[in-house]
Amino acid sequence: MTLSTPLNVLFLCTHNSARSILAEVLLNHLGKGRFKAYSAGSSPREGGSPNALGLQVLREHGLDTNGLRSKSWDEFAIPDAPKMDLIITVCDNAAGETCPYWPGNPASAHWGYPDPSAGEGSDAQKLEAFRQTLLAMRRRLQALVNLPDEKLTQPSLQQSAKELSQI
Predict the structure, then answer these.
(1) What's the rounded Cα separation, in Å, for the pair 6 and 84?
(2) Would you list the DSSP string of 128-161?
(3) In a domain, 35, yes or no
(4) Catalytic residue among 91, 107, 109, 141
(5) What are 51-66's pLDDT values in tens digits?
(6) Which of 37, 52, 110, 130 has its CA 20 to 30 A from that of 58?
(7) For residue 161, is it within any domain?
């Protein structure tokens, strides 16, 4: 069995400026058309601009950052929004928030990562925190894209996503 349409994945983080943006770009790159990733947050970053260090790290890894912006999760709860198959929170704050109703009853999981933008230190140390977060995400997202198609369909998707949270 093969997936006939890409699996829609929404990454959530409170401000949608760092971790969720990294995950969106990385899955769209690694997923090679099997996945379509999006990101959003409950309180998007003022001005809609993702964290500059996050964008720098993505570009360092040859990943496209054109068109990225911090978005409200409300954009994905409206009737004509893409239907999500999987919703993943990547920060502990977002995991504890009351999310909107997601049409279609998507699978969900929490894949927590430390906030690379919260650290103190030099610009070089902050940049390294973003690099480490991207590498940690890459390991988990590579495992997701390597799953066989039968692990990516309902009802297996919920269990698969939770198992990947342990990586």
Answers:
(1) 10
(2) HHHHHHHHHHHHHHHHHHTS-GGGGSTTHHHHHH
(3) yes
(4) 91
(5) 999 999 999 999 999 9
(6) 110
(7) no
